[in-house]
Amino acid sequence: MSWLDAIKWDDQGLVPAIAQEAGSGKILMMAWMNREALRLTSESGHAVYWSRSRGKLWHKGEESGHQQIVHAIHLDCDGDAVLLEVEQKGGIACHTGRQNCFYRELQGDEWVEVLPVLKDPGEIYKS
Amino acid sequence: MSWLDAIKWDDQGLVPAIAQEAGSGKILMMAWMNREALRLTSESGHAVYWSRSRGKLWHKGEESGHQQIVHAIHLDCDGDAVLLEVEQKGGIACHTGRQNCFYRELQGDEWVEVLPVLKDPGEIYKS
To answer: How many helices (H) and strands (E) does chain A have?
Structure first.
């Protein structure tokens, strides 16, 4: 019985993972992990997700340098959601160059962007 | 074009919703919403989720009294995750009687319960 068996993987073998910044408590992003991603996250101490769009493991920061150092891993009551407490390298979690991905806020019946772009994505992802 | 159209509902018409306590920044829970749940959440100012196990709308706190008053609704960059800032009535978000659902922490290769039960579930859910 592995600790990984406590997780209720969905029918695609994935579980949602929330990354929260240690200290500030800011929610940085939500992504997905498969069994291998979560095992690697625990073993390496760096967040590894499963990219559903690319269909492969995604070592967060592999291109951008914006790695997430994992301080703690939590599991919820139903075993179907994971919470990571992380240190965000570069202070930028979002591929848009913002501090976090939840930069749109509902105001009335419109989504308003409430966080600034800290770095041009073109500079983050040099081809 | 409704603000609800900005959301990338999954193939079951759902989106994951994270509830974070306003002020403390604590992550309380993660649940799911369909279009109707999110619309009702915005209109009523109280969190409404979609219960996948019961297959119906779940007005959080309808049985327990542990409602969530919604201060803000955020959407992420990909439009496939929602973040709610809420005030948690009763200070208990989890059906186990704990402050939040992420009460298990990975220590070595074991999940350890790190939050106390504040109220017996039998007292919360009187039949």
So the answer is: 2, 8
Contact state of B104 with A76 under an 8 Å Cβ cutoff = yes
What residue spans of chain A are helical by DSSP H? 35-44, 121-124
Output phi, psi for B5, to 5 deg: -75, -15
- Put simply, whether the predicted model's pTM sits higher than 0.95 gets the answer yes
Q: Give one DSSP letter per residue of A7-20, joined into a string.
A: S---TTSEEEEEEE
Residue type, A32: W
Candidate from A25, A83, A104 with C-beta closest to B74? A104
DSSP B89: G
DSSP state of B3: G
Q: Which amino acid is at B61?
A: G
Which SS3 state, helix, strand or coil, does residue B11 take? coil
Asked if B74 and A110 come within 8 Å (Cβ–Cβ), the reply is: no
**Which tens digit of pLDDT belongs to each residue from B65-110?**
999 999 999 999 999 999 999 999 999 999 999 999 999 999 999 9
Type of residue found at B109: D
ipTM of the complex: 0.96
pLDDT digits (tens, 9 = 90+) for B9-44: 999 999 999 999 999 999 999 999 999 999 999 999
Residue pair A75/A9 in contact by the 8 Å Cβ criterion: no
Three-class SS of residue B7? coil
